[in-house]
User: Fold this.
Amino acid sequence: MLALIACLAAIQIPIDQPPRLRTILPNGAAITVERMPGAKSLAMQLVISSRGTEESPITNGLRHLLEHIIAKGPKGNIDLRLEKEGGFLTAETTRDAMAFRLSLPIGKLEMGAKILKELTQLPPVTTDSIRQESLILEQEFSLLESSSKISATAWQQLYGDKGLDPNGNLDVIRNATPAMLATLHKVQFTGGNLVISVAGDVDLDVATSLCLPIVAGFPKSVPTLSDRKPGTGGQATIDGFGIGYCLPVPGIRVPETAARLAAALAIASEVDQAYVIYTPSALPGVVTLGRDDDKHGLAKAVASAKPELLFERGKAMARSWILRRLNSPDQIATIRGILMANSTDLKPEVLLENINAVTYKQFSEAMAAFNSDSAVVVNGR
Amino acid sequence: MITLLAATLFASSIIEWNDPNAQEITIQAIVRLPKLGARDQAKLQVLARTIPKQTEDYARREMLMITGGAWVQCELTSEVLRISESVPANNLKGGLSLMDSFLRRATLYQEALDASAEQVDIKDYWSQALDPRVLPPVKMQRDDALALYHRIFRPSTVTIAVGGRLTPGEATEIWEKRMESWVPEPLPKERHDDSEPQVRTTNGSGITTIRYVAPAIPSGDPALSTEMLALFALGSGKGSSLFRIAREKHGWSYRQEAILVPTLEGWQLELLVASNPAEGAATKAESIKTELLEDVKAWTADDLNRALGMASAVLDRSIPFSPLYVLGDRPIGASLEDQTFWAGYWEMKTGKKWSPIALLESMNHVTLDDLKDRATTFLNGVKVTVLPGN
Assistant:
């Protein structure tokens, strides 16, 4: 513990290097390292694209189950080892990727690399361990918030089976077999699907060379960007609270996405306790503008929003929204990792540039879209 | 002279929290609350919703111009009211002026009060478990609201915390200058309201919650660091006893955490478990407690070291799943706002500067036997409350 405290007080020597380094391996795997002098945390993440393993009605939830099982580690002791050193692991499965995120004290680069390597392996799986994990997933599903349900409902309405909720279907999960998970793991863990994202007070070359062996041994694959095309809007209901206005967006390379995000944030600023959900992606997605109570408050704001009053505010809020995701090592590693898993050349600055370039016309069209047939309006109880 | 003396004696205090990487400046007002009866607690809730809407100096749109579009938040716990605003890095002066206006010149117009009184807060399972109060509906007249406002907001109850990439002393100088003119209204005649709020008996979210609450410990208790470490060992992190038993072994819960809640007098240590509403929650609650007691007996140096590691991760780096629930239904996070609030709050509560290293050093002296002893005492002393989901 004394070593740990000493570590807390230590200051690494600033290094004269560029802010970040991106490396693409011959097998298609990618590594991004961002140098943040003075940062107190070190973030190291393994992101696995869902290319080739996208959700379908018969597999819906298997990736989520696999994520739970991998996170335990081959010997079931990853959490104990990490927590003893002041580290922590979280994991998440989205439509585009599965991510394992380590938050570590500074100076724990080697330990992080070792644990990321273990997280590329499939731990022993039995029907009993699947049954046990199904119980936990059932508990997880029961805690889903209304905002998640609203967003998931809109995704499915807009994109059908390509918008299935990555949390999954409990029946599919309960009927999973060890062989199914082994196959899924094999398809998922190929070079072109793998990204390691590191951010913290690190040397770019040292961090990159430590991460190379983690992903270098996987078979080569060429990433092909899967696609989804939005259908039409409409009305939907959920077993939950509140209301959501949800619009399809084409992905962060397209200016319309920035305009719709800015419009959502601007309208939300007119109503107490409104929220906006958007996961940046190269692929088409959904911007959700919602509120947990008082349907009329949000409905009125959507109907009466005046772009001439909200244009500058909307752009400022969207800039702040993305800049806040570039504040800490954990956030930076997360957004860079998830975007590189989409496409190795994609970065959050693309969205920032598009936000800065949003015109009044684009913004007012985006605002009007929330009140049009393009939107999915999801109502709770 | 008397005014100057009073201003010195009862002046609001200010702390600066420097973060050289911060992109914005955050300004936090931490207002210590007196003990309030149920009706006043309900009124204060209405007041807290209304204050950020408008002041005598700033309309809503002007506020958003100052903050660069960011919302001003006003949150309540049982112990403090928090007003939180963020401003662009070049607008410290504007931000402090806005905060001053919230503290002294909120308009509290009748229409805004009525709208706030009608607002329904949807509380999730976690919030309902942590704050089981059911406050009576209230309608507030403006005079009544202003009287409560002036009773709560006084120089002596306010701590200001400013965080960001700061020039040392600049925020303090601006704030102290502004405060020279704050002569509080005479305290309104105290009405005696000692009514206790009703307490919910079910969790209306549909999720069952099991809460293990130990008797509160005083603010300056020297055993706080040992108590906290025992809490980390029992319920913080995925290697904790609670996680291993309630989630991994039985599959009874996806979310289960250790919680440290401030009270008016000190701190309250808790464990909280959320479970889908299957039968037998009371039996599960007892079973978890019994198994935790058995688990504590088997703790080794690994458990002690894991608790120390988690404590360092939470106190120094503010990783998620912190037990520091000083913001009501959510713990302190890593954001600049939360870190600044925490630094100000800790100083207000303990009279000492926040130093994670000092607290961690004192935890480092805890032995395994101490840890097991504290955890056992905690578990034997807890009151178990089950709120069945319905």
Q: What stands out?
A: The longest helix of chain B spans residues 281-297. Chain B has a mean pLDDT of 91. Chain B touches chain A through 55 residues (CB under 8 Å). The first strand of chain B starts at residue 13 and ends at 18.
